[in-house]
Structure formats: structure tokens, C-alpha cells
Amino acid sequence: MTLPWHLYLMAFIYFFAGLNHFRVPRLYAKMIPPYIKSPVLMNQLSGAAEIILGIALCIPAISSYSAWGIILLLIAVFPANIQMLTDHKAALGLPKWLLIVRLPLQLVLMYWAYLYT
User: Fold this and answer.
1) Three-state SS at 62
2) Contact at 8 Å (CB) between 11 and 113?
3) CA-CA distances (angstroms) from residue 14 to 82, 86, 87, 99?
4) Tens digits of per-residue pLDDT, 65-94?
5) Average model confidence (pLDDT) across the chain
6) Does position 7 have pLDDT exceeding 90, yes or no?
7) pLDDT at position 89, please?
8) What is the dihedral of CA 111, 2, 8, 65, to 10 degrees?
């Protein structure tokens, strides 16, 4: 079974986003809400999840499960998007309008993943 090119694009995006969690961990740790007790561990777990789910998207037998995993991951990290919007230090210098646009973008990303479930 050949997977569509846009599924490979999604896999590429999540794989490299996950690698970035390990390349610049301080960037991601700033986004994690303060009520999360171990931001370093949460960054590592979410980065590893993105890498694994990105790879799994390319395996036809499990790509559907991976797409569901991505939807769950996007739900789990949504508080980080809220944190970026409400905390200047977490915003990484991004303009407010872009931080606002990121919120509904998460729904678009969830829908994109849902297309492969």
C-alpha cells in the first residue's frame, strides 16, 4: 500500500519537530505551564512522542494508530499554546496575533491527522 505524499509531509513535520525538542530544549521548556512539575521530562516525552508518531505514520500497518496518537498529543500540548499566549516569557518573542492564530491551527492539525485514521 502506498501512502499519500501529504501523509509523508505530516510525518516529516512531526519527526523534525520532535528532534527540535532535543536540539533546543530550553525553547520548549519555556512553553510548558508552571503547574507541570517536570518541564524537562515533559519536553523530552513530547519530543520523543513526535518522533515516534512521525515515523509510525510511514508504516501502513500502524499509521492509523499514529494519527490518533497525534490527535491526542495535540490535545495534550494545547496548554502550552495557552501558556505562550498568556505569558510573555513563554511567547518566544512571537507577535500576539500569531499566538492567537496558533490556537485554531491546532484544530486544523487535528483534522489533518484525523484524515488518516
Assistant:
1) coil
2) no
3) 20, 25, 25, 19
4) 999 999 999 999 999 999 999 998 888 889
5) 94
6) yes
7) 87
8) 50
